[in-house]
Amino acid sequence: MAKEMIAMLLAGGQGSRLYALTEKLAKPAVPFGGKYRIIDFPLSNCINSGIDTVGILTQYQPLVLNEYIGNGQPWDLDRLYGGVHVLPPYQKASGSDWYKGTANAIYQNISFIERYDPEYVIILSGDQICKQDYSDFLRFHMEKGAEFSVAVMEVPWDEASRFGLMVADENDRITEFQEKPKNPKSNLASMGIYIFNWDILRKYLEEDEQDPTSENDFGNNIIPNLLRDNRKMYAYHFNGYWKDVGTISSLWEANMEVMDPEHSGINLFDNNWKIYSRNSGMTGHKISASADVHDSMITDGCRIKGTVKHSVLFAGVKVAEGAVVEDAVVMGGTTIERGAVVRHCIIAENVTIKENAVVGAMPEGDEHGVATVGSGITIGEGAVIGPKAMVRNNVKGGEEQW
């Protein structure tokens, strides 16, 4: 039975600009918003949009990501026909290759796509925070009679040169593509979300694979080749929330925005478009009489005895009496001991911050540095970590003490 559209989710990115947070973790598996991981967003968008077949292409540090995805049950993707499938690189008779680029990753999984004989394929990124109805995008693609469509967002003109840009006419037909140009002709930034007619996608993937000079990339190769051949290419305007959380500061900022849905545009409390995630299995959180909690997200299993202000606390975080957490993102299993102060920073999973230690500081003037502590690290008693510091775990095996 053929599927109308299946999704191919690119989730193999290293996320190198997140430094300490992705040393042992694929970027799509990075925790976000108290109870989620980044990959929850495209997976939830798929099931909410009626897409029940998703191939997830993994590569870098896939262990935690694979374990988290499991059989796809949290997203209603545990299907007998379709569902979620993890697709790592594998050895073939012709040789063994890592995914060499985004286009090559899809090319290596042509046989998976063929199993479902879809009319359309949507290609998604596993490292963005976005709530999007892909069925609306597909309707646009079909109404235009498109062979390729790309989701775009208008960005400020003074930032346009940071993006891949689509130049389109009054009917949204794409006439030119600019990759991070010095002199932009458009402010329509590509979101890296594409819909292809499957026959067109297959043709261009196979041609690209035969080109020894190709970088095997959608932005650098496939899209320019479609333009060269004057294919029917259209830009779909998306007006919702979208953020590429590729840096420490953007990840911190997006976490802060979930606490202000009326102004930020990202509403995790919307029952009409739920973001699903794997249940932590922990008990409810407990806020003691000594605690002072304001404007924060406190999730399962947290034990709060100290002060928490404008912060996101993931499952199982413990804040001792006399400790202060402010403007911080504190990931699961972290313990903040008595008298410790944690401000304007991101603390990764399973960190211990000992008594009277200080991590980060509230910004002054134009100073906006976000301190970061990598997973599994212990910040020693009385230690002081500055506002732009990054504590990384460079010890192989065992725990690192700072």
UniProtKB/TrEMBL annotation:
Instruction: Tell whether Phosphoprotein is among the UniProt keywords.
Output: no
- Please report the stretch or stretches of sequence annotated as the Glucose-1-phosphate adenylyltransferase/Bifunctional protein GlmU-like C-terminal hexapeptide domain: 290-379
State which pathway it belongs to.
Glycan biosynthesis; glycogen biosynthesis
Residues in Nucleotidyl transferase domain copies = 7-258
What Enzyme Commission number(s) does the record list for this chain? 2.7.7.27
Q: Which InterPro entries match?
A: ADP-Glc_PPase, ADP_Glu_pyroP_CS, GlgC_bac, GlmU/GlgC-like_hexapep, NTP_transferase_dom, Nucleotide-diphossugar_trans, Trimer_LpxA-like_sf
**Gene3D superfamilies attached to this UniProt entry:** Hexapeptide repeat proteins (2.160.10.10), Spore Coat Polysaccharide Biosynthesis Protein SpsA, Chain A (3.90.550.10)
Task: Return the PROSITE patterns for the record.
Answer: ADP_GLC_PYROPHOSPH_1, ADP_GLC_PYROPHOSPH_2, ADP_GLC_PYROPHOSPH_3
Reaction catalysed? alpha-D-glucose 1-phosphate + ATP + H(+) = ADP-alpha-D-glucose + diphosphate
Protein family (similarity comment): Belongs to the bacterial/plant glucose-1-phosphate adenylyltransferase family.
Residues annotated as binding alpha-D-glucose 1-phosphate: Y99, G164, E179, K180, S190
Matches recorded under SUPFAM superfamilies: Nucleotide-diphospho-sugar transferases, Trimeric LpxA-like enzymes
Question: Its quaternary structure?
Answer: Homotetramer.
Q: Name one Pfam family in it.
A: Hexapep_GlmU
Entry's Gene Ontology BP terms? glycogen biosynthetic process
MF annotations from Gene Ontology: ATP binding; glucose-1-phosphate adenylyltransferase activity
The protein, known as: Glucose-1-phosphate adenylyltransferase
Recorded superkingdom? Bacteria
Keywords carried by this UniProt record:
ATP-binding, Carbohydrate metabolism, Glycogen biosynthesis, Glycogen metabolism, Nucleotide-binding, Nucleotidyltransferase, Transferase
Native source species: Hominiventricola filiformis
Which residues of this protein are annotated with the site description Could play a key role in the communication between the regulatory and the substrate sites? Q59, W98
Q: What does this protein do?
A: Involved in the biosynthesis of ADP-glucose, a building block required for the elongation reactions to produce glycogen. Catalyzes the reaction between ATP and alpha-D-glucose 1-phosphate (G1P) to produce pyrophosphate and ADP-Glc.
At the top of the EC hierarchy, this enzyme's class is transferase
